């Protein structure tokens, strides 16, 4: 059969109504407040059980050092000093330096009071009381302290727990990893040579029964953990200032450990500088004999030439040239050193750099001119000039090597490195974490957001019908809209008689909606073949029994003769509205032919209203309803009453409403606002239409103008299980 329903337009579904969104959040304010409060309590518990974290810091300066300190000054000027901050950072974080600090401070020794599980930090800080029970006596209450002076364990005990129990009067017992127990005294060494175990406790404070955990940790793991707590960064770009910081729960331990790291780093730097100086000194001492031989060879060549040519000296002109050439070459070496400095700060287009280049060009031109003048000297003087020049160069190299050797000898003996400790390790008095106000504020914000997301998510995951216009677009006219009635809220399991709103609060807006339904039905059923209607719903807890009962009352109050029939032979509960017992005979007895209609009708609470309950629940309700007796009953009620209202089961749960709908004059669906999914309404219409039953219209029940979801029902539930058909949307209820 062709489905005539029209789906709701997607474009309209995607529109966001800010006012409606805020109304839903306001309707779920209890959930949001509860989520925020829960998050705040969790944050407070977390803060109470989180130890504070302190930070110690120190400041180091990296002094400049040439890349070739072994060379003479003239050659060292050619070597450029490269930034080495990144290298020194890695050295600071190396296993060598950290291992020295671990050994100096015995970080691989662990000795701490035994803490209770989960809330150990809060109990140790004295924020929570702990009963003085025998089973809890071993846990720390903030009054226990221990100091290890010596700990030595065999290799297979590394990482194993040693349990120490205070016995009072400076005595204690030890539970060793091999299961043995021994006793000791504070300040007295305890040695077990056969096991390779040694221990000395320096300080032990705590009531008798307090327990402590001792452990020799693996050095590699301790170094890895220490590296995770250490931070090294250069302060400013190319400043050669290193800022070193270390975090920890114990401020004294953090300061002591960082001091040990800085000392280990300085010591390795001094050792490295001394080793470099020794290496450079060895190189120079190997070069000095060669330089001395070069001086002697130059002297021999000069003297031999003078004897052979009978030349005594250069003369005034040659000596002047030699002196001036040496001066110019010295100035060029100085300019080369200055250029290295300028190149690290400026580009070649800078005025200072251009000035230096111009000066160098003039000196080079002057040097070239002087060398050309040497070619104009007589041959004998020219040769003496060259030999004298070679001798002076050799002597200059030899003298520079001697000076450098003396400098390196002083550097080696001084034990000074090229790193300077500017600020020694010191711990900040205030902890850096946890930041209580920030954590609490963040938890409250996240809790509120989680509550809001839960409220909106609950709504969007199970989106019910939000207005009559959505039902109109499906081709289902809405006879009336009944407002939500808070007075009808009942807790599950409450077995007291259910109130009839039309009698307990006849002036309420909800009852006015039912009167509007009465009027719509009066004019809508003028041409109906019978004056009987079946009221059903897609799923339980839509409020169809509430609608049927109160509609019957307001119709009877208007002067009509009304019969209210509980046609739910499985879980009918209309008797609870009228205070009738469960065994009261009713519809099941009539359909089975066990009783006449006159014996089954019961008067209602208002004049003109008669009630027919379900009777005993039969084992075959569908078969009973399919008997001709149902049509005969509807015809008989049509003769006796102005209106017959049959409260049918949910249509998507069982097939009974199809059978009832074929016997009555009209079928009406009760749709609960914001609860019944639109897909369930479409499935309901398809199911009835496929059986030849057409829905006359719908009642939008429990409408809330603020568009909030009601978490309550009407105390009316079904025990049979319902699952949506393929293609249905939403949760079917229970």
The fourth-level CATH homologous superfamily of the domain at 484-506 and 528-703 is: P-loop containing nucleotide triphosphate hydrolases
Q: Could you give the count of β-strands?
A: 20
Number of helices: 23
Beta fraction: 15-25%
Sheet with the most strands, sense and barrel status: 8 strands, mixed
Please describe what this structure looks like.
It is built from 23 helices and 20 strands. The chain is an alpha/beta fold and 734 residues long. Among the domains are: 26-50 and 434-459; 110-216, no CATH class; 284-416, no CATH class; 484-506 and 528-703, Rossmann fold (3-Layer(aba) Sandwich). The strands form 4 sheets. It has an 8-stranded mixed beta sheet, sandwiched between helices. Strands 2-9-4-5-6 form a 5-stranded antiparallel beta sheet, with no helix packed on it. β16 and β17 (609-612) form a beta hairpin. α6 (95-105) packs across α9, α10 crosses α12 (379-414) and α16 crosses α17. It is elongated and about 160 Å long. Residues 1-14, 66-83 and 708-734 have low confidence and may be disordered.
Layout of secondary structure:
Layout lengths: L9 H5 L3 H10 L1 H20 L5 E9 L10 H4 L8 H8 L2 H11 L3 E5 L6 H5 L20 E8 L9 E7 L2 E5 L5 E5 L4 E3 L4 E9 L5 E6 L2 H11 E5 L6 E8 L2 H59 L5 H29 L7 H24 L4 H36 L4 E9 L8 H26 L6 H6 L4 E6 L17 H4 L4 H16 L7 E6 L6 H14 L4 E5 L20 H5 L5 H4 L1 E2 L5 E4 L8 H5 L2 H13 L2 E5 L8 H8 L2 E7 L5 H13 L4 E9 L31
Parallel strand pairs: 13-20, 14-18, 14-19, 15-17, 15-18, 19-20
Antiparallel strand pairs: 1-11, 1-12, 2-9, 3-8, 4-5, 4-9, 5-6, 7-8, 10-11, 16-17
